Amino acid sequence: MSPEHLVDLIVSLQAELLAARQRIRELEQHLPTPPTAKLDQPFSMRAEEQRQHARSNKPQKRKKPKRHGRVTTADKIARAERTEKVFPAGIPPADCRRSHVRPVWRFESGRAVLVAYEIYRGPKNQYGQIPGVFGRSEFAVEIVVAIAFLVHGVGLSFDKVCQVLTFFQQLRLPKSQADALLRQLSRHWEKEFDTLCTLLAHAAVVHADETRWSLNSVWAFLSEQARVLLFGVHKDAGTLKTILDPETFEGVLVSDDAAVYATFTIAQKCWAHLLRKAIKLTLQEPDHEGYRTFTDRLLEIYRAACRARDDGRLSDAGRTARVEGLEQRVYDLCSAQWLADEPPGDGCRNDYRLLVNELMRLMLAKELFPFVTAPAVTQPNGATAPVAGTNNEAERTLRGSADARKTGRTSKTPAGARRRTILMSVLESLRLYLTEWTLASVIAEVTRWMEAGRSCFEDLLIKLKIPRPEDSILDRIFPKVEMATS
């Protein structure tokens, strides 16, 4: 392109640029003016001081006080259905003066009742004690025990327990409060748990069984004097030695054939496990005549052992002679297969070989018939029962815990397992001491503990002259942690 053409192009572009600028100015004149409210005001330090002064003198709206969900003590006292006076024990009411008023929820006639207790103080600052109330709690012991039974005994969640209390007893209770009440109850019953463990270690017969749980395992120890349930513990020799030391335990241990129980001097292995294995063979091969005959003869031996145990005409020497005859019958039943010493195989044939070897091993170890010669045990409530040849009672005790494991209704923390261990052990042990295991009888017994300062478990410990351990058994099983929600 020549220079002349470039000059003409530049001139034409400049003309178009000037025309475009002129058009922009014309259009801007037709646009509305933007608001400038802030800019129209004076912008200086004095103007800002005047604005702040105007805002400070402007009347403020009164804020409503926030409610945090708590009801004052005065409001609770005003809602109480009645008022009762509580004087210190052994001091005439004329010598006492009123100290304060405490509202307490109680169960009366199937519903929750709020009672205002006027606490009186003696001349030496002796305070009256409200019957059936732990410490400074606002809930009586019957409410706390009912919650413990519903949560850990029945297996209801805290939400459902609160719904039950609202529907049946007209008691509105948040689940955080229910959780706090169980923590308080478990702290009061820690000493009772140690007492139960001491009674268990000196029992004549103990049934033991274990199963998997959300945290490690759950273990049940049942005796004629105590029932101890351990949640969230390891199934090992260390835990077993803490509860039931094989070197010092002199009673009969009824259990399955797990290796952890192999070191006890007097052991009764569960016949139900052996019979179930034999019955399984007949179900897997119903046409096998040998398996049916083996099962029938094994069941006859167990029934004969039970008859010898229950025969009141037999002396100790007579029962010992019967046991020798029963052991000979077991040998006659198993000797052919046992002496054959077949190598391991597959299927029912191998299961049959293992069952025969197990029977012979237990028979030679004197672990099949101790229940025949062991004397009957007497429970604290006066009931007498012979020693069982099966471990079914311990298995039934753990059935609820196994169902809770399958449905996820178990403790999620060691602190929750510790709390469940204390509450379930005490509640289940009370079955042995009460003729009727109801809420009324349990509350009457627990209230008696609080007034006497000593439980029925402690009374039996003193009666048997059994010394208490120097340190806490509970702290040896569980680490000392702050209780938390289960």
TrEMBL record:
Cross-referenced Pfam families: DDE_Tnp_IS66
InterPro entries in alphabetical order: Transposase-related, Transposase_IS66_central
Region ranges (Disordered): 28-73, 382-415
Coiled coil: none
Basic residues biased stretches: 53-70
Domain Transposase IS66 central residue range list: 139-418
Species assigned in the record: Fimbriiglobus ruber
PANTHER family noted in UniProt: BLL1576 PROTEIN (PTHR33678), PTHR33678:SF2
Protein's name according to its UniProt entry: Transposase IS66 central domain-containing protein
Domain of life per record: Bacteria
Biased composition (Basic and acidic residues): 393-406
